[in-house]
Amino acid sequence: MMLNIESFSLGPLQTNAYLIKGEDEGKAIIIDPGMNPAALVRRIKDIEVEAILLTHAHFDHMGGVEELRTAKNCPVYLHPLEADWLTSPKLNGSLNWSQVTGPLSTSPAEYDLAEGQKLKLIGHEFKVFHTPGHSPGSVSFLCGTHLFSGDVLFKMGVGRTDLAGGRERDLYDSIQGTLFRMSDETIVYPGHGPRTQIGYEKMHNPYMA
């Protein structure tokens, strides 16, 4: 069963938002609707959105939540450790980045995410991994060989840990103890930048040497 994955680079921090469809082209989910989501909004005009999944609740990943949730009447999923971040510009960081955005807030998520949870969406199963370090409630989603890693693992890079709730030890534990145990063929779709593969990052990521 194939996934149809489209990527949109949104907002001033060029956050990757992912529009994912299964066999039914009329239904989709969205992972991390970032700021300035006009291109994504246009794309989903005639598509039913089953859910919005958030890898974490930093402002550049949740900036488009309210516009998309209102337009498509779909629920939002987020780890409970960041439940308050959607409503708080201080917690989601938008208060501290006045050079790129005003304060951002949105209604709370409808559903919590948990380690080991399996979400049945668009005819596929998405497994939830709690991967803290970049932020306390960071999660990664695995569907088959497709991994959506948020800001935990990038091509030749890792997430920053100097923001509120970040912890370097947790980040490396998440990568080495969780993500690097996945198949080398697993394709990584990060929160910023190009996609990569687990096997490639094991061999070449300079931060994981």
Automatic annotation (TrEMBL):
Q: Which reaction does it catalyse?
A: 3',5'-cyclic CMP + H2O = CMP + H(+); 3',5'-cyclic UMP + H2O = UMP + H(+)
Cite the Metallo-beta-lactamase domain residue spans from the record.
14-192
Keywords, comma-separated and alphabetical = Hydrolase, Metal-binding, Zinc
Q: Which Gene3D superfamilies match?
A: Ribonuclease Z/Hydroxyacylglutathione hydrolase-like
Required co-factor? Zn(2+)
Keyword Cytoplasm in the entry? The reply is no
Alphabetized PANTHER family for the sequence: HYDROXYACYLGLUTATHIONE HYDROLASE GLOC
- Any idea what job this protein has? Counteracts the endogenous Pycsar antiviral defense system. Phosphodiesterase that enables metal-dependent hydrolysis of host cyclic nucleotide Pycsar defense signals such as cCMP and cUMP.
Kindly provide the name given to this protein in its UniProt entry: Glyoxylase-like metal-dependent hydrolase (Beta-lactamase superfamily II)
